[in-house]
Specification:
437 residues, alpha+beta, Ubiquitin-like (UB roll), seven-stranded antiparallel beta sheet, three-stranded mixed beta sheet, 28% helix, flat
Length: 437
């Protein structure tokens, strides 16, 4: 007799076995369908051989192309153009394929691009032209329409801080121009930076725009509120290991108690990078509702020393070698030391008069030994930035000596030195006084 429990167990085994069979059968049935779907997806993503933007007049074509996702295949390099004409291999051509979802979004991207630049009635039609199996041409037909133009532009400012000439220079938009919100934002930022450069680091610049859509006209008001003067508070240096905080503070134009100005901040950051001591120098101002601005400088040091050596040979100078050593923080203080040297005419005595090293000495002018003796050059330069603890000053001191020769022409022996003082007069403008012996 069979027990009920054994019967139920057999029934479950049979059910599980039937389920496995059904799953395998479904997989076998669906596999070709999945493969066909993948092949259809591949056919649905053809290569974009050509991208055409028709009707682009009021905006930059290159900027518009960069704002959309659809891109045409292009040659990887100008040097590869002859190969790209002969072959469309991915080795030479950077291929791009049509993403239909992004293609639909590109229409919206173009409309937004035009809207921001004042063309609020622009429309876009699209077409995908099949050139060959797996290759298409994508066409955007753009109808820009009439732009919304600026009827009036008024700048409200404090005449004790900004003069009319400066305002006219900063107002890059004029009445009659399209209402370009990108340029307007650049103009707003320009006013804010100008106020910051005068010590008003918390200045506010607001814009109010009133648009008459029926007349396609807009009135723009730009309000410049200087608020209060800002000064530099405490300066904290973080992340330094070998370079002392005093070296960093001597290299920057920002000083506690001085006006907090944009040009000083930018020039200070430039000084730290040009010292070659840091691969990162980040200035941050922690949020503080006060006219005194504390500054945090986060730095990441780079290698303090560099050295290289090279060599070669030719049939005039025989074997040569040269080397260079640089220390960017010699004895601290961001003091830079450069030492370089070169040797030539090495192995001249055994190599002279060989088949590949012809005779180089004119008989009777000099003895053979004078021209085949080794030649050499050596120089050393020291540059002290922030001389006398002023970042505007730099003092350089150097010396050199050499013995060089041109076969059968001359032998030159010399030595000398250089002393130079450099003073920064303005950002990226300096004056130097030097003496060379």
């Amino acid at each position: 007799m069979h027990s009920p429990a054994l019967s139920r167990a057999r029934a479950r085994v049979v059910a599980v076995g039937a389920g496995v069979v059904l799953l395998v059968a479904a997989a076998l049935v669906l596999a070709p369908a999945t493969l066909r779907a993948q092949q259809e997806d591949q056919r649905e993503a053809p290569e974009v051989r050509s991208l055409v933007l028709n009707g682009v007049h009021g905006v930059g074509r290159v900027d518009l192309e960069r704002s959309i996702s659809t891109t045409a295949s292009e040659c990887r390099s100008l040097l590869l153009l002859p190969f790209c004409w002969l072959s469309k291999s991915p080795t030479f051509v950077d291929k791009h394929y049509l993403d239909r979802a992004e293609f639909k979004r590109d229409v919206l991207r173009i409309l937004v691009f035009y809207w921001k630049r004042g063309y609020r009635e622009a429309t876009v039609d699209t077409a995908v032209v099949h050139l060959s199996p797996g290759a298409v041409k994508v066409v955007f037909d753009i109808h820009e329409g009439e732009p919304t133009r600026i009827a009036s532009l008024h700048v409200e400012f404090d005449s004790t801080v900004l003069n009319d000439r400066r305002v006219r220079k900063l107002a890059i938009l004029r009445a009659g121009d399209p209402l370009n919100l990108v340029v307007l934002d650049t103009m707003r930022l320009g006013f804010q930076t100008a106020m910051w450069d005068k010590g008003y680091g918390d200045a506010q610049v607001d814009t109010v725009i009133a648009v008459d859509t029926a007349q396609r006209r807009a009135s723009v008001v730009l309000s410049v509120n200087p608020r209060w003067l800002t000064t530099v508070g405490t300066i904290t240096v973080r992340g330094n290991e070998e370079v002392s905080p005093s070296t960093v503070q001597n290299s920057i134009l920002l000083r506690q108690g001085r006006l907090f100005r944009y040009s000083d901040l930018a020039e200070s950051q430039r000084n730290l990078y040009e010292s070659n001591l840091f691969r990162m120098a980040l200035f941050t101002v922690p949020p503080r509702p006060d006219s005194v601005k504390d500054i945090v400088i986060d730095v990441r040091e780079t290698k303090m020393r560099e050295a290289h050596i090279a060599g070669g040979f030719n049939n005039v100078d025989f074997l040569q070698t040269d080397g260079r050593f640089t220390n960017y923080n010699t004895f601290g203080g961001a003091r830079r030391l450069d030492v370089s040297g070169a040797l030539g005419n090495l192995g001249a005595r055994p190599l002279n008069n060989r088949a590949f090293f012809p005779q180089v000495v004119a008989p009777g002018l000099f003895s053979d030994s004078a021209f085949i003796l080794p030649t050499w050059q050596v120089s050393a330069d020291v540059k002290q930035p922030a001389w006398l603890r002023k970042p505007e000053n730099a003092l350089s001191l150097g010396g050199f000596a050499h013995r060089t020769a041109a076969p059968a022409v001359y032998i030159d022996r010399g030595y000398g030195g250089l002393l130079a003082f450099t003073r920064a007069l303005a950002p990226r403008a300096s004056s130097s006084l030097s003496y060379r012996f």
